[in-house]
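In this section we walk through a basic example: taking a raw amino acid sequence and producing a predicted 3D structure, encoded as discrete structure tokens. The instruction is simple. Fold the sequence below.
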Amino acid sequence: MLSVATPVTTVFTLTGPQYRLRQIAEERAYRTCAPDQMAWENDTTLVMTLENGIGTSFLRHGDGLSDDYPDVSIRGMEYFDCFDDPGFAKWQGGQLVYEADLITVFGILFPTDASKDWPGCSTSFWHRSPALTAAIAENCPDFDLMPLRQLAGPEPGWVQTTDGFATLLLRLPSTANAEDGLGVIFYPTLGRFTLVTGIDRLGGAAGFLRQSYGQISARCPELRVILRECWKADDKSRRKARHERKVLKRKMRKESREGKEILFDLFDPDPWVM
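The resulting token sequence is shown next.
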């Protein structure tokens, strides 16, 4: 069987005086990347991009750049394929300022609405930490959730979207600097709810809790009507899915007793939930 390498993209963004960055670009040509992989974001920002990695840890390479050029600010980012599990780092004055890896816990799209000239918004939630918050703010400004305020939702202050598998009800943070947003994720066919607490404008969250229908209704009484509608709308598919899961469980137990290798597993959409 042929193995297919996963594309890796490594990006270093250097910020400093233009004359200094031009010197660095000349010195790093074919060492960090080829000249055609360098681009000027503006007069004081040089971006170096490598599409297939750099042959070593991007953190180690960033440490080397920082040691050689302590007079410029350096941000590093590396990710696989389509921005999967990106890693971030920043060096300032020759010192590592932060290092963080982004693991998206839940993501969903608020799709384009041509009638409202709405370009859409991809919503991602992740466990908040000081380092990751700083990294997301500097490297992923498009994560900003506040533009969702322009959408009409099921209740004042709430917006809603679905991808056919999960439905998200989101109460945005009260202000741009607040961490009081709240999210309710409903998996209709599983009859399962997840409560996302302490959401900030970038999608950072304080916690992810598995909740029952009753617990969500008590916590968010303003959503009782819409939750009841969502629950009833998928009652048949939920019963069918529950039956299928029971059949799979029996099959798994039987094959386990017979010593057979189990080639399938029951899908858990949120193993990260407490």
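Looking at the output, two observations stand out. Residues 7-101 form a domain with the Alpha-Beta Plaits fold (CATH 3.30.70.1270). The chain has a mean pLDDT of 84. In the next section we compare this with other chains.
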